[in-house]
């Protein structure tokens, strides 16, 4: 295999490896030569090979495993949210909202069907634009805002990054990070700079280091951070604003995905005079994942560039979907139900954390905010996950969310839909799994 890789520049080496993979001469699990070996073989500087391997990793073609070397991965094997297919285990790693708490759209749908929308008409429905401007401006006062509607938060973040970054540009992502964020950066070829998360959200030291590393964009989850559930405190948000104050042209994306369901206030990290920003709020957590719609409030320049990113394809999100979203969110009863759903998620998650604290002493778990519980383990997540599978449970391993190659010691559990009996059984089985996994690795 060594003799088949060619090239004298990082781009040529990268394209050679990609070509070998596309022709089936390299497959998932195949190990690439060491940096030293390939540099000697091709008579190039080691830094050239390092740059090539970095591009392969960022493109999702290869993965670096420390002493295990750099290996070809399955490009389509990126972890996704949702239920595992063809699975007989009880799935507690879905990240899904409770379908029973999603408002029924059938009555509102009948009322929003109207005349057809034709090419050239405004891309944002007037009623939704008016309502959404108040929703967004309340948390971003005294700013000139322009609204854009996209097909969900992932679509918004992907297009926002694409209009600001080029391949190999650096972007600051939270670590651990939401699954789609990792995949978006990888497919875009961006260089990720990890910003650690603690119980108050994005850390000041981490953001400072990322800015010093030259990131051109920062993606921050102000509340209900996925997977940890952390939300920014007022003090932390103020400290982050101070760090950003001398970087007004770094694009700051605030992904407030939980918004109406959150039990915490919104604290923006945007300094008063920041020039490039976007606040993204999707409706999927409270109106359902199939309602693929997000509202983006941004500065005029970012909004203009975002509109250009939308123009090559369909230039708008379906007006039927926009009208339905507005009809639901403008309904006082629906908003009351959404508030009740947020409280339900918080109460069920907190109850499970209390149960763990009582039944499994020494196991650290945090409900935070959001749909999940983040559990810190004394041993590797993979070892515990395997033991849970033997007991009938499928958990989401923390390894899926980390930006590094280090083995995670966390589980993300979606437990809000478990009744008391099932929650007690999961706690018991988790305790047993930790003990068994500890005995094996100890």
TrEMBL record:
CDD domains: AAT_like (cd00609), WHTH_GntR (cd07377). One of its GO terms (molecular function) is pyridoxal phosphate binding. It comes from the Bacteria. Keywords: Aminotransferase, DNA-binding, Pyridoxal phosphate, Transcription, Transcription regulation, Transferase. InterPro entries: Aminotransferase_I/II_large, HTH_trans_reg/aminotransferase, PyrdxlP-dep_Trfase, PyrdxlP-dep_Trfase_major, Tscrpt_reg_HTH_GntR, WH-like_DNA-bd_sf, WH_DNA-bd_sf. Residues 7-75 form the HTH gntR-type domain. Transmembrane segments: none annotated. It holds the Pfam family Aminotran_1_2. This is Aminotransferase class I/II-fold pyridoxal phosphate-dependent enzyme. PANTHER family: HTH-TYPE TRANSCRIPTIONAL REGULATORY PROTEIN GABR.
């Amino acid at each position: 295999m060594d003799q088949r890789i060619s090239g004298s520049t990082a781009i040529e080496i990268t394209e050679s490896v990609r070509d070998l993979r596309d022709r089936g001469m390299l497959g998932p699990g195949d190990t690439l030569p060491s940096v030293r070996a390939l540099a000697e073989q091709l008579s190039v500087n080691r830094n050239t090979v390092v740059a090539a391997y970095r591009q392969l990793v960022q493109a999702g073609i290869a993965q670096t495993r420390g002493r295990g070397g750099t290996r070809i991965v399955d490009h389509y094997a990126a972890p996704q949210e949702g239920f595992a297919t063809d699975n007989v285990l009880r799935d507690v790693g879905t990240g899904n909202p409770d379908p029973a708490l999603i408002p029924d759209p059938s009555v509102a749908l009948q009322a929003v069907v109207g005349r057809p929308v034709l090419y050239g008409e405004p891309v944002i429905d007037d009623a939704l634009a008016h309502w959404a401007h108040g929703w967004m401006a309340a948390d971003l006062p005294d700013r000139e805002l322009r609204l854009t509607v996209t097909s969900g938060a992932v679509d918004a973040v992907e297009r926002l990054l694409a209009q600001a970054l080029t391949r190999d540009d650096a972007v600051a992502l939270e670590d651990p990070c939401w699954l789609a964020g990792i995949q978006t950066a990888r497919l875009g070829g961006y260089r990720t700079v990890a910003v650690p998360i603690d119980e108050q959200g994005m850390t000041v030291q981490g953001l400072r280091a990322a800015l010093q590393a030259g990131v051109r964009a920062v993606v921050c989850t102000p509340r209900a951070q996925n997977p940890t559930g952390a939300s920014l405190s007022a003090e932390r948000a103020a400290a982050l604003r101070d760090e950003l104050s001398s970087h007004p042209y770094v694009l700051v994306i605030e992904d407030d995905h939980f918004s109406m369901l959150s039990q915490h206030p919104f604290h923006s990290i945007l300094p008063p005079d920041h020039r490039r920003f976007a606040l993204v709020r999707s409706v999927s957590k409270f109106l359902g994942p199939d309602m693929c719609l997000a509202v983006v409030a941004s500065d005029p320049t970012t909004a203009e560039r975002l509109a250009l990113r939308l123009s090559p394809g369909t230039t708008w999100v379906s007006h039927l979907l926009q009208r339905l979203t507005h009809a639901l969110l403008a309904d006082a009863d629906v908003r009351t139900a959404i508030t009740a759903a947020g409280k339900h998620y918080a109460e069920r998650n907190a109850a499970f954390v209390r149960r763990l604290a009582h039944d499994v002493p020494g196991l650290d778990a945090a409900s935070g905010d959001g749909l999940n519980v983040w559990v810190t383990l004394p041993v590797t997540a993979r070892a515990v996950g395997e033991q849970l599978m033997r007991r009938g449970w499928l958990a989401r391993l923390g390894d899926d969310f980390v930006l590094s190659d280090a083995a995670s010691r966390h589980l993300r559990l979606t437990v809000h839909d478990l009744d008391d009996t099932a929650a007690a059984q999961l706690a018991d089985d988790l305790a047993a799994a930790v003990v068994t996994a500890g005995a094996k690795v100890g």
